[in-house]
Every structure is written in C-alpha cells, then in structure tokens.
Amino acid sequence: AQSVSQHNHHVILSEAASLELGCNYSYGGTVNLFWYVQYPGQHLQLLLKYFSGDPLVKGIKGFEAEFIKSKFSFNLRKPSVQWSDTAEYFCAVNTGGGNKLTFGTGTQLKVEL
Amino acid sequence: DTEVTQTPKHLVMGMTNKKSLKCEQHMGHRAMYWYKQKAKKPPELMFVYSYEKLSINESVPSRFSPECPNSSLLNLHLHALQPEDSALYLCASSQVPGQTFPYEQYFGPGTRLTVT
After folding, report:
1. What are A69-106's pLDDT values in tens digits?
2. CA-to-CA distance for B56 and A102, rounded, in angstroms?
3. B36 C-beta neighbours (distance < 10 Å), count
4. Do B43 and A90 touch (CB under 8 A)?
5. How far apart are the first and last CA of chain B?
6. Second label for A67, Cα 20 to 30 Å away, from A32, A46, A82, B6?
7. Residue pLDDT, tens place only, B6-33
8. Is B105's CB within 8 Å of A101's CB?
9. Strand partners, B18
10. Ramachandran region of residue A61, left (φ > 0), alpha (ψ -120 to 50) or beta?
11. DSSP secondary structure string, B7-54?
C-alpha cells in the first residue's frame, strides 16, 4: 500500500518569507498527486494537482509544486507567504486512477505578521 | 455551484443512540465519499459510492452504515458508537474517476461528532 510522508509537522514563517513544504510518497508506479489546504474553520480545498506532463504545476493563490519522480517527491512552494496562508496543508496521493486518496499527516503553517 | 453541504454541523450522541449524518451536492457528481478525521490527523477514507452503489468499504465497523438514496445525497447512519468514534466526519464528491486518473474531490465542512 502507498504511504505519504510530510516531514514538517509545524512551520512558522514571517510574512514575505519563502515557503517549501515537503511531501514524499512510497509507490513505484504511476501516481497522481494533490495538495489540499484547510484554512481554520473551513473545508478542505484543492490547491493544485499533478497527473502528467510538465512536472512543475501551478495552483491557486500563488502556490506551485514540483514533481520529482526520482526522489518520489512533490514539494509545495510559494515565494512569498501572507498571513492569510496560515492553514494546514495536506499532500495526497492516488495510484493508478480510481477513487482512493491517501493523505499525508499534514503540515500546520503559521505565518506571523 | 461547487458546494458540498453537510448537516448537522455538530452532533453529540450517547453510545446507545441512533443518529444520521447527511451530505448533499448538486454538481452532478456520481462519486461520493465519507472520510473520518481525528484531531491533528489526516482524513481517512471510510466509504466510496459510485453511481449510487457502494464501491469501497475500508473495513469500517458495522456501527457505521452508509446509504446513497440518490445521486445528490449521501447519508451515514450511526448506531452504538464508541467514544473513540468522536471525530470530524467529512463528505466529498467528484466525477467518477477514470481507470488511470482521478478527479478532484470537493469536500464539505464536516460534522463534528462527539460520542459520550
């Protein structure tokens, strides 16, 4: 079974700092990758997704992620964070189509003014 | 409209009670999901319905009983729950996935369940 690791459980940044959140998965076959965000008191929302093609994908709110197959990674980046980016971020993996998403343990990001 | 609604927002129930959680979407999605999310943990898949038929049951105890009465509605019937079942229960919907790729899942705000 596939697993997803997010090694940064809590991240604290100042506004305008750059962000990179790690995501690694364990599965040797075809993967479909997602980053979801959960703002305080709100529902999970999709930030971006990768199925195939250009390994650098851009999402909403200035976020991007890079799929590096050789490293089994799909790290999330943002050049300059804002206070409103304070949220929990989940990486998720789907293998070979179908319905099943496996979520990572999440990273709690706090952006300070 | 990309909204998935869930009722109630909060539910407190005793271990002998019977209650139901409700989920509704009007995006024309034919796949619907129940997830369980404990505090500080990721969502864990419980059930998936495709075309109103149960397609995945992640070995969930029988005290949780899902139902999909039509393409817009998804229910989760609860009976004889345990305190450790207290969690946020999330509903999601999507188009029915293809054989090689999934579709984005749209999540509801969840029902916060407390079992006393």
Report:
1. 999 999 999 999 999 999 999 999 988 667 788 999 99
2. 14
3. 21
4. yes
5. 36
6. A82
7. 999 999 999 999 999 999 999 999 999 9
8. yes
9. B79
10. left
11. E-SEEEE-TT-EEEEEEEE-S---EEEEEEE-TTS--EEEEEEETTEE
